[in-house]
Amino acid sequence: MAVGSKDLAPAELDTFEDERLLDELRRAREELFNLRFQAATGQLDNHGRLRAIKRDIARIYTVIRERELGIRATPLPVEKPAKKASKKSEKATEPEATEESA
């Protein structure tokens, strides 16, 4: 995903886990540093990109802070479906459960 584009909307940021948000924040801050360096040396072609990156960083910080305060819900981690146990293993576990309860 490109930082500073319409892909980094607040609705999409809600689906990111905390680790991914921090990774996007790191990338955006790194890109901002590079853009500032280019601006200082006179090599920057698109000055609007600075503004877009700053706004993306602010969006990410907002989502992180709202999660800390409990305003936004943190997305649940996606769990892989468990494999179904065979009938033999189900029968083997049932007697053990009844022995413990008796």
Quick recap of the structure?
By secondary structure, this protein is mostly helical. The chain is built from 4 helices and no strands.
Written description of the protein model:
The model has no long low-confidence stretch (mean pLDDT 81). The protein has a single domain, classed as Orthogonal Bundle (Helix Hairpins), CATH 1.10.287. The chain is 64% helix and 0% strand. The chain contains four helices and no strands. It is an all-alpha fold.
What proportion of the residues form beta strands (DSSP E)?
under 5%
Mean pLDDT: 81
**Quick one: how many beta strands?**
0
- Class of secondary structure makeup: mainly alpha
The arrangement of helices and strands along the chain is HHHH
Q: In the CATH hierarchy, what is the class? A: Mainly Alpha
- The DSSP helix count reads 4
Choose one word for the global shape.
elongated
> Rg, please?
24 Å
Low-confidence stretches: none
CATH topology: Helix Hairpins
Total separate domains: 1
Helix content: 55-70%
CATH architecture: Orthogonal Bundle
**First-residue to last-residue Cα separation:** 57 Å
- How many strands, what sense, and barrel or not for the largest sheet? none
